[in-house]
Design a protein that fits this description.
Dihydrofolate reductase, alpha/beta, 5-amino-6-(5-phosphoribosylamino)uracil reductase activity, 194 residues, 8 strands, Riboflavin_Biosynth_HTPR
């Protein structure tokens, strides 16, 4: 069975909202959009992200993350290995509002999301990676469908914003399977549910 890995960029206080650009997600009055720009040019971080490409056979997105990714990566920088891999690898979108997708090799999941993801995990192919998509990750965690977390924790406190792990969730034990720190202070942590 394919493994499902959630790859998440977080502040030390667990915020994942508005990682990439100032206007990315201002809901709830969030004003720190683009908070990770300083860390994006980290060569060590880029190398860590590239390591998992060969094992990745599919990507999974929620609607918002898909729309943001689809607006940039089809014409993304050709000198970044991630661009080609992302464009040429099957992508699946969990959404109740999208009716069509335009990015090459992208498919809408139909019906109950946990059931659709369970079927996807039973198909042949490499591992499935979720990028961002916090609401989707929380839904899949509630059904024990996430096999691994790769958390890239950047050294800053935002004080507000959407967090990956909500306050009201039940206790879950994780087992650390990998850790490293970049020169810019980003800690890359790999966890599996214990």
């Amino acid at each position: 069975m394919r493994k499902l890995t959630a790859v998440e960029f977080l502040s030390v206080d667990g915020v994942m909202q508005g990682y990439g650009s100032p206007g990315e997600d201002t809901s709830g009055g969030f004003r720190h959009g683009g908070w990770a720009a300083h860390f994006a040019a980290d060569d060590e971080l880029m190398a860590a992200n590239a390591e998992g490409l060969s094992a990745t056979g599919a990507y999974l997105f929620g609607r918002r993350t898909y729309e943001k990714m689809a607006a940039f990566w089809p014409t993304g920088p050709s000198d970044v290995p991630f661009t080609s891999h992302l464009n040429n690898t099957p992508k699946y979108v969990a959404s109740t509002t999208l009716r069509e997708v335009t990015w090459q090799k992208t498919f809408l999941l139909e019906g109950d999301v946990p059931e659709a993801v369970t079927k996807l995990k039973h198909q042949e192919g490499g591992d499935i990676v979720i990028l961002g998509s916090g609401m989707l990750v929380r839904t899949l965690m509630g059904h024990d469908l996430v096999d691994r977390f790769t958390l890239l924790v950047h050294p800053l406190l935002l004080g507000s914003g959407k967090r990956l792990f909500p306050d009201d969730q039940e206790m879950r034990r994780l087992r650390l399977i990998d850790s490293r720190t970049t020169r810019k202070g980003t800690v890359v942590l790999g966890y599996q549910p214990a």
